[in-house]
Amino acid sequence: MKKILIIILILVITVIFLSYCRPKDVVHPIIPTIAITKAIDVNWTISSTDAISYFQLEKLDTTTKAYNPIARIDLNSSLSYSYVDRSLYDKLNTYRLKMVLKDSSSFYSTIVK
């Protein structure tokens, strides 16, 4: 019972103190938050953009065993590209990159797990 009274007394004193303080005098602690995200950052580099029209990142569907497009990445002024995949499978995530050339032909990168 004594502990409960002490806790109530501390709370009352805190409320009284805070009610008389101006807002700028009250220090609000910063509570860190941790965001746990599951994502894979797929990165690739090319040596030239001369023949390439765009990239298509494909991911292996673990159920159908077929590669499905998950992103189209257009060229920019850089030779380095990346895509963040936030739709992950529980186990293995397998990717390949389709490079579509300006003449509409295409070819694939090696498979990355």
Describe what you observe in this structure.
The protein is α+β, with helices and mostly antiparallel strands and 113 residues long. It has a domain at 40-108: Immunoglobulin-like, CATH 2.60.40. 17% of the residues lie in helices and 35% in strands. It is built from 1 helix and 6 strands, in the order H-E-E-E-E-E-E. The strands form 2 sheets. The chain has a 4-stranded antiparallel beta sheet with strand order 3-2-5-6, with no helix packed on it. Strand 5 (95-101) and strand 6 form a beta hairpin. The longest helix has 19 residues, at 2-20. The radius of gyration is 28 Å and the shape is globular. The N and C termini lie far apart (61 Å). The relative contact order is 0.19. Mean pLDDT is 76; it is low at 15-35.
Q: What is the element layout, followed by pairings?
A:
Layout: H1 2-20, E1 40-45, E2 52-60, E3 67-74, E4 80-85, E5 95-101, E6 106-108
Antiparallel strand pairs: 1-4, 2-3, 2-5, 5-6
Average residue pLDDT: 76
Taking the sheet with the most strands, its summary is:
4 strands, antiparallel
Beta-strand residue percentage: 25-35%
SSE string, helices as H and strands as E? HEEEEEE
Q: Say what the CATH topology of the domain at 40-108 is.
A: Immunoglobulin-like
Number of strands: 6
CATH level-two architecture of the domain at 40-108: Sandwich
| Main sheet strand line-up | 3-2-5-6
User: What is the overall shape?
Assistant: globular
Helix content: 10-25%
Please report the distance between the alpha carbons of the first and last residues. 61 Å
Low-confidence region ranges: 15-35
Alpha-carbon Rg, integer: 28 Å
Please write the CATH class name of the domain at 40-108: Mainly Beta
Class of secondary structure makeup: alpha+beta
What is the number of helices?
A: 1
